[in-house]
Amino acid sequence: MQSSVTTTNGAIASEYQEAPTEQHGHADYRMLGLVFFLVAETMIFMGLFAAFVIYKVTVPDFTKELELLVPTINSVILVSSSFVMHKGQSAIKNDDVKGLQLWFGLTALMGAVFLGGQVFEYSNMEFGLTEHLFGSCFYVLTGFHGLHVTAGLLFTLAVLWRSREAGHYSSSSHFGVEAAELYWHFVDVVWLVLFLLVYLL
Amino acid sequence: MSDATIHHGGDRKWTDYFTFCTDHKVIGIQYLVTSFLFYFVGGALAEVVRTELATPDPDFVSPEVYNQLFTMHGTIMIFLWIVPAGAAFANYLIPLMIGADDMAFPRLNAVAFWMQPVGGILLISSFFVGAPQAGWTSYPPLSLISGKWGEELWILCLLILGTASILGAINFVTTIFKMRIPDMDIHSMPLFCWAMLATSALILLSTPVLAAALILLSFDLMAGTAFFNPTGGGDPIVYQHLFWFYSHPAVYIMVLPFFGVISEVLPVHSRKPIFGYRAIAYSGLAISFLGLIVWAHHMFTSGTPGWLRMFFMATTMLVAVPTGIKIFSWCATLWGGKLQLNAALLFAIGFLSSFLMGGLTGVMLAAAPFDIHVHDTYFVVGHFHYVLFGGSVFALFSGVYHWYPKVTGKMYDEIWGKIHFVMTFVGFNMTFLPMHYLGMQGMNRRIALYDPQYQGINQICTWGSYILALSTLPFLVSMALGLIKGKVAGRNPWRALTLEWQTTSPPEIENFEEMPVLWAGPYEYGIDTESEDGDEDIEDMLTEVANVG
Ligand code: HEM
Ligand SMILES: [Cu+2]
C-alpha cells in the first residue's frame, strides 16, 4: 500500500508529512469549545426567559413590584467587575502577574458582594417561592443566575489560585484567564437581560 | 508500515472498554454497545405493549403498568438508544475520517459517555418507585399527578443525558473545525461529518431549552410551584412550547447522523460518486434551520390561533424540500451504479423506502386539518416509527455492517446479515404499516383498552412485532460469526475512499502511523479510472490496498 500511495500521490504525500502534526495544545480550539458551551448556556436562559415573557403577556396580574435599591447596586457592581477583570487580562498580556492577581482578586470580591446582595435581597423578600407565579419565576430565574455567578466566581478563584500557587499564566499562555473572563462577561450580560425583564419591565 | 504495525493495530484489552478510557474509538464502541443494550430493553417493553394490544381488553398488564410501559419504551428508544447511537458513530468515525488522532476534548468525551449508564440506571430504577406514566412527552398537568418519584427520576435522567449530548456536540464541532488534516478543506470532508455539524448545531441550540422546561417541571413536582399547573395559575401550554422547541429538532438529532451514514454507504456499495455532494451537505444545514422554527405543528390541537397554525404548517411543509433533495440525490447515486447487494446496502435501500414513507406521512401530518383528525391516533404512531425505525434504525444497521470490518478487522457473516434484513423489513412493515389505517379509523394511541372492531388489524401488528423482535437473532449471529470465523478484512475491503479506510482494521491506538493522504475526493468512485498522464488509477490502487490486509 505504501508503495502505491507514493507512486500515485508521491508529491502530495511528502509535502504533507512536513506539515505540523501537533493538533493539541492550542488555546484556540479550547476557546471555540467554550464558545459553543456558552451558546448552549444562552439557550437555557432563553428558555427560562421565554417562559417568563409568555406569562407576563398572557397571565393577568402577573407582575409584582420589586424593591430596586439592592439589585441596582448589584447591577452596577457586576458590570464594573467585568471591566475590572478585563484589566487583569490586559495585565497578563504584558506579563504583569501581580496585576493579574490584583484585578482578578478584586473581581472575585465584587462577585462575592453581588452574591451577598442577592442573599440580603432574598431575606427581605415579601413573597416566597410558591406564593404566586411571579414569585416562582423570580426565585428560579435569579437563583439560576446566582448559581452561574457562583460558578464564575469559582472559576476566577481557580485562576487566581493557579497563578499564585503554581505560577501559571504569562503573556504567551493565558487561556485560563481568557476563558474565565469570557465566562464572567457572559454571566454579566445575562444579568443585564434578567434585570431588565424581571425588575424593570 | 511494516507487518508488525499491522499486527499490533488496534491493540486494546477488553477491559479497556469498562474503564474511563479517552480513546475515541473505545468510547464509540462503549456508546454503541450501551445503546444496543437499551435497545433490547426498549424493544422488550414494546413487545409487552404489543402483546397487550393483541386483545381489546387490558388483560395482559394493568392499564397503569401499560402507561409505564409505553412511557419507558418511548423514553428509552429516544434518549438511550437512537441519540447515543448517533454519538457512537460520530465518536468512532469523525477523527478517523478527518485524519485526526483523537477528539478535541478526549476527557470530556469520556465523561459524556459515562453519563449514559448513569442516566439509564436512574431511569430504569424508576420502576421500583412507580415508573412515570405520562408518556415520553411528560405533559403537565398529567405528569404532575402520576407517580412523583418516577417522574423526578425521568427528569434527572433526561437532564443528565441532555448534558452529555451537549458535551458531545461541543466536541464534534470543535474537532471538525480544528482537527482536519491540512489538505482537507470543508468541501472535501466526508458527508457524515457534515451531517454531524448539522446535528451538533441543533443539539447546542435546542437541548438546553428542554433543560429549561425540565427544571421548571421539576420545581412544580418537588417544590410546589405552579409554572405548568393551571390550578396554581400556571400554563401547561408553556411546557408544550418549550418541550417541542427541543423535541421537534430532536427528530432531526435522531435522523441526521444516519442521513450521514447513508451518504457514506451508498456511494461505496454502488461504486458511484455521490450525486450532489454540496446539495446533500447544505440541505442538512437547511433541515436544521427549518427544524428550529416549526415546533408548534405538534400543538395544532392545543388552542394555537389559526394564523399561527398557518405559519407552522407552511414552514413544516418546507422541510420536505431539503429532505427531498437528499432523497433524490441518494436515488441518483444508486441509479446506474454497480450495486453490491450486501447487508449494508440492503439496509440502506430499506432505509430509503421506509424513510420516504415516513416523510410523506409527515407532510400529511403537517396539514393542520388532517393532523387534527388523526391527532394522537395510531396514524401518528405509524408515522414516527417509519421515521425513527425505518429511517434511523435501518440506516444504523446499514452503518454497523458497513464499518464492521473496520472496527473488528473481520467480515460479518453475509448470509445471516441478509436474513436479518429480510426479517427486519418484513416485520417492520407488518407492524407499522397497518397502524396508519388503524389511526385513520380512529384508534387512539396510549390506550390499553380499545374497541373490538380494531382487533384484527392489531393482531397483524402484534405478529409483525414478533418477527421484528426475532430479527435481532440473525443480527447477533452475523456479528458473532464474523468475530469467530469471519474472513480477515484488511484495511479496505470495500475499496472506499474516505480516510478511515487508510489505517489498519481495527485502527491502531494512534489511529494512523503517519498522517493520511487524500487519495481523491471522498466519493470519486469510477471517475478518473483512466487518468491521462498514465498514472495508476485510483480503482487499481484501491484493489491493491484491499489485497494487503
Ligand atoms: C421493536 C420495535 C418497536 C415496536 C413493536 C414498537 C411499538 C410501539 C407501540 C405499539 C407504541 C405505542 C404505544 C401506545 O401509544 O400505547 C410505541 C410508541 C413509541 N415508540 Fe415504539 N416500537 C418499536 C420501536 C421503536 C423505536 C426503534 C423507537 C425510536 C427510536 C420507538 C419510539 C417510540 C416512541 C417515541 C413512542 C411514543 C411513546 C409515548 O407515546 O410516550 N419505538 N411503540
Ligand atoms: Cu415535529
Can you give a write-up of this model?
- The complex is a heterodimer of chains A (201) and B (549).
- The termini of chain A are far apart.
- Chain A is mainly α and 201 residues long.
- Chain A has six helices and no strands.
- In chain A, 80% of the residues lie in helices and 0% in strands.
- Chain A is elongated and about 55 Å long.
- The N terminus of chain A is likely disordered.
- Chain B is mainly alpha-helical and 549 residues long.
- Chain B is 67% helix and 0% strand.
- In chain B, α6 runs antiparallel to α7 and α14 packs antiparallel against α15.
- Chain B is globular, with a radius of gyration of 23 Å.
- The N terminus and C terminus of chain B are likely disordered.
- At the A-B interface, α1, α2 and α5 of A face α6, α7, α8 and α18 of B.
- Copper (II) ion binds next to α8 of chain B.
- The site of protoporphyrin IX containing FE has 26 residues of chain B, from α2, α3, α14 and α16.
User: Ligands in the structure?
Assistant: protoporphyrin IX containing FE, copper (II) ion
Please count the beta strands of chain A (DSSP E, at least 2 residues each): 0
The fraction of residues in strands of chain B falls at under 5%
Q: What string, H for helix and E for strand, traces the elements of chain A in order?
A: HHHHHH
Query: Quick one: biggest sheet of chain B?
Result: none
Number of helices of chain A: 6
Q: Looking at the chains present, what oligomeric state does this protein adopt?
A: heterodimer
Mean pLDDT of chain A: 87
Mean pLDDT of chain B: 91
Structural class of chain B: mainly alpha
Short description:
Chain A has 201 residues and is mainly α. Helices cover 80% and strands 0% of the residues of chain A. The termini of chain A are far apart.
